[in-house]
Amino acid sequence: MIRVAVVGATGYTGGELLKILLSHPDARVTNVTSQSRPGQKLGDVHPFLRGRMDLTLESYDAKRLASTCDVVFFALPHGVGSQNIADFVALGKKAVDLSADFRLKNVKTYEAWYKVKHASPALLKKAVYGLPELYRKEIPGSPLIANPGCYATTTILALTPLVRRNALVPGSVVVDAKSGVSGAGKKLDPMYLYCEVTENFQAYAVAKHRHVPEIEQILADQSGQTQSLTFVPHLVPMTRGILVTAYGTLKKKMTTAAVRRAFEEDFGGERFIRLLPEGRWPQTKDTAGSNYVDINVTVDERNRRVVVLAALDNLVKGASGQAVQNMNLLFGLPEALGIK
Ligand SMILES: NC(=O)c1ccc[n+]([C@@H]2O[C@H](COP(=O)([O-])OP(=O)(O)OC[C@H]3O[C@@H](n4cnc5c(N)ncnc54)[C@H](OP(=O)(O)O)[C@@H]3O)[C@@H](O)[C@H]2O)c1
Fold first, then answer.
1. Please, which residues bridge with residue 168 across strands?
2. Do residues 172 and 195 both lie within one domain?
3. How confident is the model at residue 340 (pLDDT cuts 50, 70, 90)?
């Protein structure tokens, strides 16, 4: 039985982790932490856990967690947990970080986009990007998994088969992305108030969202070439879900069938990627509450443009489901164990 702690257990991804771990046959949650509510019952913060996970929130203490757990999920905002993660990993334990702190390999890029100083840059070299469909072999040997961003997971999976085949005109890719409100976490911000969100559809961080360098870094790694794209996120009045529409100009003529073959070759055996039948387009409702990514493609032959659509649940495949997928790989368990 793997003993697990969730740091930042009161947040959205922390709650989703606990929901998944509750029915994981080989994992047991031993500790849950909160900086603002130590001493409070977990079931008072997440009522769905009342009578099902009898734990009390505690303050973070690396040594205590290292003595009671095998792995810790850090579900904290970026910039606040990296020193704690470094302390924990130094004690010889495994960590899965849901924040952006260990995703970008270049510390200057991280500091430029996130506007904070990185507290433990030396650990970046040891971190593996936790997108199992691309880095399955590297994950088990690493002490620290940088769990990918939700927009990044969706966009990277939508574009990888194309960039691996060098099929796109450089600089031609535009990504139009939409997210439900839970993507922003539980924090209070007027932009996420009910009256601002409901019956509204707005863009934000246009062409400067923080997932851009993450997406470009991984697509460059997958293709062996520098990648550059324009990314426009939107906030949609729904609780959870991401839908990405990616457009790119093809270098050479390609049929829809040929593009589909590329996706089938790369992802055909993937447990959590569903390439939909022709004419069926991914939608957020079909992936809500699951760890699936739904993808479909078409070629606009008149304009030699490929269009890829992908949908997932930002709190599951975009965060906590993927984090448990990574935990399973770290401990040699079947990758899909406990992820319904
Ligand atoms: N939401 C998503 O869809 C999603 C998807 C992928 C990745 N992520 C990433 O996952 C991480 C967690 O996201 P989330 O949506 O769960 O956020 P959240 O709902 O805001 O929860 C974060 C938790 O961290 C704790 N916290 C906040 N400020 C802190 C501080 N200064 N020091 C220590 N603890 C602090 C808070 O709990 P206490 O005050 O009780 O300690 C809070 O409940 C973020 O880095 C986010 O970018 C989120």
1. 250
2. yes
3. confident
- Angle at alpha carbon of residue 135, lines to 129 and 137, rounded to 5°: 125
Shared domain for 40 and 84, answered yes or no, is yes
In short, whether 44's Cβ falls inside 6 Å of ligand 1 is no
Task: Establish whether residue 37 lines the binding site of ligand 1, counting it when its CB lies within 6 angstroms of any ligand atom.
Answer: yes
Q: Is the CB of 322 under 6 A from ligand 1?
A: no
The domain that contains 23 carries what CATH number? 3.40.50.720
Q: Are 115 and 98 in contact (CB under 8 A)?
A: no
Whether the Cβ atoms of residue 90 and residue 72 lie closer than 8 Å to each other = no
What domain range includes position 48? Answer: 2-147+318-330
* Ligand 1 atom with minimal separation from the 315 CA: 3
Domain count, the chain: 2
- The answer to whether position 183 is within a domain reads yes
- Which 3 state secondary structure label does DSSP give 52? coil
Q: Which residues contact 174 (CB under 8 A, 6 or more apart)?
A: 229, 230, 232, 246, 247, 248
Cβ–ligand 1 contact at 149 (below 6 Å): yes
| 0.90 exceeded by pTM | yes
What are the structure tokens assigned to 304, written together? 């030699």
- Residue 51 — left, alpha, or beta (φ > 0 → left; ψ -120 to 50 → alpha)? left
Strand partners, 56: 41
CA distance 103 to 109: 11
* pLDDT, tens only, 76-134: 999 999 999 999 999 999 999 999 999 999 999 999 999 999 999 999 999 999 999 99
Catalytic (active site) residue 150: yes
Catalytic-labelled residue, pool 62, 72, 144, 150 = 150
Q: What is the pLDDT of residues 12-70, one digit of tens each?
A: 999 999 999 999 999 999 999 999 999 999 999 999 999 999 999 999 999 999 999 99
Q: Using CA positions, which residue lies closest to atom 35 of ligand 1?
A: 76
